[in-house]
Amino acid sequence: MTQLPTPGATPAAPPPAEPLPTAAPVRPRWRETLGLLARNPTAAVSAVVLVLIVLVAVFDETLAPDGPNEQDPSLQLQPPSWAHPFGTDEFGRDVFSRVILGAATSLRVGFLSVAFALVVGTLIGLLAGFYGTWVDDVLMRLMDVLFAFPAVLLAIAIVAIRGAGPANAILAIGIVYVPIFARVTRASVLGVREEVYVRASRSVGASDWRLITRHVLPNAAPPIIVQTSVSLAFAVLAEAALSFLGLGPRRPDPSWGLMLADGRGFIEQAWWYAVFPGLAIVVTVLCFNLLGDGLRDVLDPRQRTLMAGSGR
Amino acid sequence: MTAPGEGAPDVLVSARGLEVHFPIRSGGALRRTTGALRAVDGVDLDVYRGETLGLVGESGCGKSTLGNALLRLVPPTGGTVTFDGLDVTGMGRRQLRELRRRAGMVFQDPFASLDPRRTVAQTVSEPLEVHGLHPGRQARVARVRELLELVGLDPAVAARYPHEFSGGQRQRVGIARALAGEPDFLVCDEAIASLDVSVQAQVLNLLRRLQRQLGLTLLFISHDLSAVRHVSDRIAVMYLGRVVEVGPAAAVAAAPQMPYTRALLSAVPLPHPELERSRQRIVLRGDVPSPSRVPSGCRFRTRCPDVFEPCPDVDPALQPVGSAPGHVAACHLHGVVGTPVDGSGSTPAASGPPGATASGVRGTG
Q1: How far is CA B144 from CA A215, A264, B120, B262, in A?
Q2: ipTM beyond 0.90?
Q3: CATH 3.40.1000.70, applies to A38-61+75-311
């Protein structure tokens, strides 16, 4: 009885009185976001620099003039020169090459640990926020326990138990950041799950899984994206700290944190040994942070309207 | 509550003693339940197949909660709901999904009811995907075009996002989504309340056209009595979580049998200037009591101009009133029928003391 008529039999629908949006170009949200981001100079520059750093990390072996452990005993602790732009270390290794080769280590640890925290933390936050009640209580109290530990101390404890090495550094940093993602996600989900459009989807029969993946997560995503960017900065820093303490990658593998630690001993004779790896850390962390700030502005709906209004 | 004197009408949706109580919890770690907010508190209501039933009442009286509870979007805490003979309250996952296909909902705020990150096409085709209707991308796209045309939208807007539309257009999208599963039953929860007045009429007419064209059964929830009168076959009046009067739209509008309905109707402005000037408003005293502290007996007694002895002591049941068949009201003015407040006599309708003879049907002013 509710069989709809075929399109041909449909009586001509009354023409809508209001003008339909006509010429407005169909632009997906993410393109709009990129457009707004491009108009935020700080965030745009940060993004470009980060892309460059990632490219350097990917093509490190082609870009580095020397191998990571090519020693030249005649060139120990040489100041920066045309041959060695960042100088050499106590074994006569080219600091410039090692900074380039260390980028891969630092970024890999940073990206993988944040990816781990993002996946696990977001999942926990989604479940806790969406289902509430005892699921929320159990999961978030567990997160509180993790969160109560000072981050670096917890990482050191994990590495101490499982042994030093890049894989364990990734795991340690990842676990430390899980509660942060869980909290950010939960807070955002708590707001979104009460939205009418979530109830509307439920009213047409959508399953919990569909509600979570198609409606709740996409709408709860902006704070998570910002948190990811900020966490990447901290993760790079944490990797440097763990390496500095000898709990991350091992010598003689190049790593910014390790170089910083080794260069510290020569800071009076050869400033370049510690300064250039340190600079690499600063630039990377700063760019992630600034990009995070920019994303936060762009993804905030109120800011977004303001910016779009002033720009057009 | 079936209409006396008529052949048993074809009931599509039916509520019996339906209750939705929200627990009121104290703060603190223990979260003790300290009370209940009785949003829906013992509702008996039938919706006949193919009709438009208007549900009116002040804001906060539980209209929306009732509409949600009928579709189990809010879990009932007591009573039963049946849909086409099936017990809604006891449905399993599969049955519930089929119910969601056969019963749609149109929401009040068209700016909140569409996911801002999904295109119109994605929103409207969601029911198709969920229920596996019109399988295949091509078929779904065609069906979405058909639905958009049905609600008076240009199918070319399918790729647009909600923020590009006006309120009326968004509401049309919401209606298209609700119709995608070819439902039998549509709950319109204040579907026109947040629209401009000129657009309200358009959407109202659209709903009427769709109802006739598709043979829908409509539950039209609104606080706007004139809109309800315009679209409804029957009208149900709700007060403080309870349906207090039900009847044919013309009968309820012309000869309301319960003081609350009379007061509600007297608040509606008349379109005729002379009649409007002579319109007598019945202004109720006081505020609606809190649904967490419902008065004993008749819940309207604290504001009723005609309150008398049995009102605090007997919880009135719906009884046939007036001259129109199927017109019922819960009011002791028509004879004291209901459950004594004592609680000792649990369910059966107890006749009140014959001494209370104020049961003559009052005229309609």
Answers
A1: 20, 67, 9, 44
A2: no
A3: no
